[in-house]
Amino acid sequence: MWLRQATVALAALLLASCSVFGGRPQGSEAVPGGRYVAMGSSMAAGPGLGPPKPDTPARCMRTFANYPTRLAERLLLTLFDATCSGATTDHILGPWNELPAQIDAVTADTDLVTVTIGGNDLNYVGGLLAATCGAEGTITIAGNVYPCPPRRLPLDEDFDRVEANLREIARQVKARAPKARLVFVQYLTLVPDVLCDATPISPQDADIARGIAARLASITAKVARETRAMVVPADLLSRNHTPCDAEPWAVGSPPDYDGSQGAPWHPNFSGMKGVADALAAQLGG
Predict the structure, then answer these.
(1) Strands, DSSP E only, in 51-135?
(2) Are 116 and 185 spatial neighbours (Cβ–Cβ below 8 Å)?
(3) What is the pLDDT of residue 141?
(4) Residue 56 and residue 245: Cα distance in Å, rounded?
């Protein structure tokens, strides 16, 4: 029931907001050469989609195929890519061990900021990885072997913290770069309504993942509306491009997967292109 309510709430927010994909706000056109800061998690960094960018911290796994790079090339923007695999909303607002806060890349001359974040706060992809982890207790992501992540269900306070942090991210972006356009980019749809060989998880795990995704999307749309930011509903745009569809935008966890299309339960090359295309359309490119 709460999943249905979250989906309905998201749809209402999308329809109510004038800053949502499909309606271009005044002054939203991208300016060639403008400073573009991309922030977020692996859903923006693009692990496994080719070799990491030079000088990228090992844990971040940023690649040239990610949507920030594609968008910057298309709109001739100067990209400062702060995205990092495994990042949470806390890592945008504050340092992560040796890494500075992602938001420190936002300066007064920044013209565009994109943000894809929140899933790691809620163990969204972590839960999917745990559900499909190998019997040996490890999983391979972008050629690296990791221990199976723990199974942890998010609590209401976790969702509340994500909402508060998203709102603080918007506040800080506007304070640091008053003229910058802020765009929240939703997560791609990873779990289809009907499972297949590429999504070998139980119906219960599927319901949990869908519920987390719907609630995160609802929160993100709400914060975007309240802070007058833009939002690209990549979740809705990709609902017919799940790992089980003919033209997937994301990788599930297919048997004997060779890693050539990106990390398990992450965007593939087509998904990154789809998000970049949607952003470009929103920004007048």
Answers:
(1) 78-81, 110-116
(2) yes
(3) 72
(4) 33
pLDDT band (50, 70, 90) for residue 6? very low
CATH superfamily of 2-282: SGNH hydrolase (3.40.50.1110)
Residue 86 Cα distances to 5, 81, 188, 200, angstroms: 29, 15, 16, 23
Beta-bridge partners for 81: 38
pLDDT given at position 97: 96
Which two tokens mark 16? Answer: 């109510």
Distance of CA 222 to the CA centre of its chain: 16
CA distance 139 to 48: 13
Show the DSSP H helices in the chain as ranges: 2-16, 42-45, 67-75, 89-93, 124-131, 156-176, 203-226, 234-237, 269-282
What does the pLDDT average to over 265-278? 98
Spatial distance between the Cα atoms of 117 and 174, rounded to a whole number of angstroms: 18
Q: Are 253 and 197 in contact (CB under 8 A)?
A: no
Token pair of 244, please?
Answer: 């089980």
d(CA 61, CA 71): 18
Give residue 8's pLDDT.
Answer: 38
Q: How far, in whole angstroms, is CA 10 from its chain's centroid?
A: 17
> What are the tens digits of pLDDT across the range 161-173?
999 999 999 999 9
Taking the C-alpha atoms of residue 267 and residue 43, their distance in angstroms, rounded to an integer, is: 7
End-to-end CA distance of the chain: 40
